[in-house]
Each structure stands twice: as structure tokens, then as C-alpha cells.
């Protein structure tokens, strides 16, 4: 009996909430859709440049060294020295990993 009653009241709440249309406010503030926003030309230019970055990016000999350092050498250095420290201290996380 109780399950039937809960199911009925839950259904009523669900249908009541479905009937309401959602009102959207910008940032939950006092602004509504009727207030017009002026586009900032600098933000629009930055957005355009950000969208075409993958098309404009080139790997050449002048930036290859920095790219290899940032993507390979630096992350491997962090991994190597962290692993070395765990091995030296005898950390249980290293011992229990099956690598020791």
C-alpha cells in the first residue's frame, strides 16, 4: 500500500515539474535575454585564433627542441625521479606494485 502511495505522489511531482518551462538567466543574475550584449572585438578575434590553432601550428627545426623537451624529456624526468625516490625510501606503494 505504501509503495503504491509513494509511486503515485512521485509521479505527480514528476508530471508537475515537466509542465513548467525552464527560465534561463545569464549567470543566475538579474540579466535576462532581452538585454543585448555588445560583442568585444578582442574576445572575438581571440576565439577565432583559438579555433584555427591546429591549422596554424607548424613543427620546424626552431621549435622542435622545445616541443621534444615539453612532451618527452620533462614528463619522463618527473617519472624517473619520483620512481627513484619511491625505490630508495622503500615505499609500500612501490613494493606492492610488483615491480620491486
What does this structure look like?
By secondary structure, this protein is an all-alpha fold. The protein has helices at residues 2-19, 41-51, 53-56, 61-89, 92-95. Helices cover 66% and strands 0% of the residues. The protein has five helices and no strands. The protein is flat and about 65 Å long.
Task: Using brief descriptors, characterize the structure shown.
single chain, 100 residues, mainly alpha, 5 helices
Topology:
Blueprint: H1 2-19, H2 41-51, H3 53-56, H4 61-89, H5 92-95
Cα-atom Rg, whole angstroms?
29 Å
Percent in strands = under 5%
Count of discrete alpha- or pi-helical segments spanning 4 or more residues:
5
How confident is the prediction overall: mean pLDDT? 78
Distance between the termini: 61 Å
Number of DSSP strand runs:
0
Largest sheet: none
Gist of the model:
With about 100 residues, the protein is mainly α. The chain has helices at about 1-20, 40-50, 55, 60-90, 90-95.
Amino acid at each position: 500500500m505504501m509503495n503504491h502511495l509513494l509511486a503515485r505522489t512521485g509521479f505527480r511531482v514528476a508530471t508537475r515539474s515537466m509542465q513548467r518551462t525552464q527560465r534561463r538567466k545569464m549567470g543566475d543574475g538579474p540579466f535576462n535575454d532581452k538585454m543585448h550584449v555588445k560583442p568585444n572585438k578582442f574576445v572575438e578575434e581571440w576565439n577565432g585564433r583559438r579555433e584555427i590553432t591546429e591549422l596554424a601550428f607548424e613543427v620546424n627545426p626552431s621549435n622542435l627542441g622545445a616541443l621534444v623537451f615539453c612532451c618527452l624529456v620533462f614528463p619522463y624526468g618527473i617519472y624517473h625521479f619520483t620512481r627513484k625516490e619511491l625505490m630508495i625510501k622503500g615505499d609500500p606503494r612501490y613494493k606492492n606494485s610488483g615491480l620491486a
